[in-house]
Amino acid sequence: MSDKLEIMKEKVRLLNEAAKAYYQEDREIMPNIEYDQLYDELVELEKETGIVLSNSPTVRIGYEILSELPKEIHEKRMLSLDKTKDIGVLKSWLGKETGLLSWKLDGLTIVLTYEGGKLKKAVTRGNGEEGEVITNNARVFANLPLTIAYKGNLVLRGEAVIRYSDFYRINQEIEDVELRYKNPRNLCSGSVRQLNNRITAERNVNFFAFSAVKADDVDFNDSKNAQMLWLKGQGFDVVEYKMVDSSNIEETVSWFEDNISKNDLPSDGLVLTLENISYGESLGSTAKFPRDSIAFKWRDEIKETKLLDIEWSASRTGLINPIAIFEPVELEGTTVSRASVHNLSIMEGLELGIGDIVEVYKANMIIPQISENLTRSGPVKIPDNCPVCKKNTTIRHENGVKALYCTNEECQAKHIKSFTHFVSRDAMGIDGLSEATIEKFIGKGLIKEYADIFNIEQHRNEIINMEGFGEKSFKNLLASVNKARKTNSVRLLYGLGIPNVGLSNARNICRYFHNDWNAIENAEYDQLIQIDGIGDIMAKAYVIFFQKQKNKTIIKNLLQEIEFEIQEPPLQNIEQIFEGLNFVLTGTVKHFKNRDELKKTIESRGGKVTSAVSKNTDFVVAGESAGSKLTKAQELGISIIDEQELLEMMR
Asked: What's the CA gap between 456 and 477, in Å, rounded?
């Protein structure tokens, strides 16, 4: 079973990779006939094993928006684990028993219920007594089986997590540093509890099982290891674990510690669980903790050092963050000399004062933090003036947290960060304009808005006499500026720095509006939320951005300086005869250059092209070598047409 499951996962990966390349990136990495063959093989394996993975292309999960997440009382109270940082205590706790030592994943604990082999319900841990029902979101977890071979009543627990690699990717797409997620757990929690499960799907949430609470008529022979292997055989990914006893527990803990840096899954320690299930259950629990498991937390490497200064760092959102500067210390193999204090509430709670002796560590062995202030001579004076523009600051209370902001809308820091983003490689791509250079140009009043960059030639004499500049540097900069005049809608939209509109979202928006800048600039909320990756908050921020008169003026002036490399005809010139209709394409094309051209033709007339046949499909356009999609359309009684019939519909 495990071999077939791995084959299924590989086929799902290949099929999804091919679909993504074709439908999202406008390129083909696999012939249509090969795709259909893989698809048919996957269908047969799913029938044979009784397992259907959530990301399988054979199932189409509809996205659903809820007004709120319903609550539900847990059938069995979910306790937290007792903890220790001492390996000796861990070894003593295990005694002569055998146990399973696994990663303690740092995500969101979920309870899943399957009935008749199908996922019926998913509920978060919540407060242990009551959780939130997130079934619709669980259905789009990246690795969760929606159908399993076991047809009895199954209740299991596991951890929903977002990998570090996905966390970094998602954060990288958020240009504003202050809006980025602090850690994978926060991102996962927000993703799992979304009211729109399209957002959950985009975040690539994974589920790792760690316990079967109930499995009718299944005998695990009192073995936790057998239970985990059974769950794995049903298609679940399980938390990585190793069998331990008193003879090897210390070296096994060391193995996990050595592999922290290689582990892509966020973890804040280990969990030790007794192998003998009935013995573990017989131990019962305290008011807070079960007695069959215990958590092991890493003993943080803590160093004392001297606080030298508090640096105030202004961002383009106006938020001013305190940064602790201290005498360099070695932590977890690297030299550390600064750590973010995050906000005024934390700084005041530590009573920081210059010259204080503080204890610093790396949270989860990664992020430098101050854990304690041993001398507490503070408080450090909070600046009345912005460190950049010298205008007044203000303290805001948001969700019980105090934060410092610059009140000046024209603060150079806000402009500097925005300009730096505007000229960056993936935006307008202007070489020679570093943040330091932009700061000098703004300080001298040479540029006040984006359009001014394209008119720097009139300031030639002043620029070549600036420190670090000369005739050659100026000519190189001018050439780069003029080269950037020819651009495209994606670069421009991304470069404007609209909150949360990263490069990927900019591409999706421009593709949706066929690179028609007028449509992009005047996009409405209802249009935006139909686009992959665009949620409620982002759509509202987008509309507000383009409604502001100041931004309208900036963009109008900018458009006079640039030209788009490709401008497709505005969509309103084409009659929207396919509005409200869903199409699926299969087989090779004859009358069109490729399927992408056929797809664009349908979409330009208001139609929607999807990758999978379902009851919501109106037409399947079938060419030669049409495969499983044609078969499914016939089974569902969906209208099947060829290219010639489609062309006749457009006349």
From this structure: 9
Q: pLDDT tens digits for 279-313?
A: 998 988 876 678 899 989 876 678 899 999 998 87
378 token code pair: 């503070």
Within 8 A by CB and 6+ apart from 548, the residues are none
Instruction: List Cβ neighbours of 129 (8 Å cut-off, separation of 6 or more).
Output: 73, 74, 77
Tens of pLDDT, residues 461-472 = 888 877 667 788
Report the topology of domain 574-650. Rossmann fold (3.40.50)
Read off the pLDDT of residues 55-85 as tens digits, 9 standing for 90 and up.
Answer: 788 775 444 545 467 888 888 778 878 888 8
Which positions are catalytic? 104
Asked if the 71-296 domain carries CATH number 3.30.470.30, the reply is yes
In degrees and rounded to multiples of 5, residue 510 shows phi and psi of -65, -35
The yes-or-no answer to whether 303-406 and 574-650 have a common fold is: no
pLDDT of 512 strictly over 90: no
Residue 84 β-bridge partners: 296
Map 20-86 to HEC letters: HHHHCCCCCCCCHHHHHHHHHHHHHHHHHHCCEECCCCCCCCCCCECCCCCEEECCCCCCCCCEECC
Pairing of strands 563-564, 486-487: parallel
Question: Which SS3 state, helix, strand or coil, does residue 314 take?
Answer: strand
Cα separation, 197 vs 134, in Å, equals 9
Q: What pTM value is reported for the model?
A: 0.50
